[in-house]
Amino acid sequence: NEMNAENTTSFVGNNAHLVYYKSRDCEIAVEPATAPTTTPDESTIFNDCQIYSILGSDYYMSAGFNGETNAWGGGTATIENIDGRDVLHIANSNYLERGFNAHDVSGYSHVHFDVWTAEAMNVGMKLMAYDGNWKEGDKQSFTTNAGSWKSVDLALSGFNHGYLNKIQGIYPLDMQQQDIYFTNIYFYKTTE
Fold first, then answer.
1. How big is the CA angle at 171 (ends 80 and 158), to the nearest 5 degrees?
2. Predicted confidence pLDDT, tens digits, the chain (192 residues)
3. Cβ atoms of residues 36 and 87 within 8 Å
4. Whether the Cβ atoms of residue 159 and residue 142 lie closer than 8 Å to each other
5. What is the pTM of this model?
6. Cα–Cα distance measured from residue 20 to residue 11, given in angstroms and rounded to the nearest whole number
7. Alpha-carbon span 45 to 188, nearest angstrom
8. Residue among 74, 76, 47, 73 at smallest CA distance from 60
């Protein structure tokens, strides 16, 4: 039986979202995904000197996280392997700081990451630095896609951060206690 967009209806209720596909003989309810099963392609357009990779790269050397995670207000953060790639999975948290070894990113122009959530939502991101005390810049916000990966590129200038030479953490916030997945996290510059 053939199904097409004209034969679809959605139902949202009691925190459930079902999509019904109508065919000539029956209706089929399809539950939306609650977690990704694949990962997005990563960019290979940069030279090694143009990128500082944190997580999820098969192409570039990754600096990796240092294992430090602070999930305030409950929740967990784990590194999971999805489709052969490392993915940061944050569950049931509103904000979280995930640390990596301090790096001078003042010569870079952007931070990139791919993000996945089951439901579309607005999320904030800050960068953390440490010089004896934690320093955070301004928050930048973005909207996720429902049930699919979204590539996000944020200009470092938008964080208005006076400590880009000591960045050692990403700080996603406003996650509304929902599961959120990040991969392909890296800083980059468009010139060599």
1. 125
2. 444 444 444 444 444 445 555 556 666 766 778 889 988 887 667 777 788 787 776 555 555 555 555 555 567 778 889 988 888 888 877 666 666 777 888 999 999 999 999 999 998 888 888 788 888 889 999 999 999 999 999 999 998 888 898 888 777 777 777 888 999 888 898 876
3. yes
4. no
5. 0.76
6. 8
7. 11
8. 47
Calpha distance 86→108 (Å, rounded): 23
| Dist CA 169 CA 69 (whole Å) | 9
Q: How far apart are the first and last CA of the chain?
A: 54
Distance separating alpha carbons of residues 156 and 164, to the nearest angstrom: 8
Amino acid identity of 131? D
As given in the structure block, the two tokens for residue 103 are 């790096």
Instruction: Return the bridge partners of 13, or none.
Output: 16
CA distances from 190 to 5, 21, 134, 155 (A): 40, 45, 29, 12
Q: For 125-158, give the DSSP string.
A: EEEEEESSSEEE---EEEE--BSS-EEEEEEGGG
Look-up of token digits 């596909």 = 21
Of 126, 70, 79, 130, the C-alpha closest to 103 is 130
Helix (H, G, I), strand (E, B) or coil at 77: strand
Residue type present at position 2: E
20 and 11 in contact (C-beta within 8 Å)?
Answer: yes
Structure tokens at 178: 């929902």
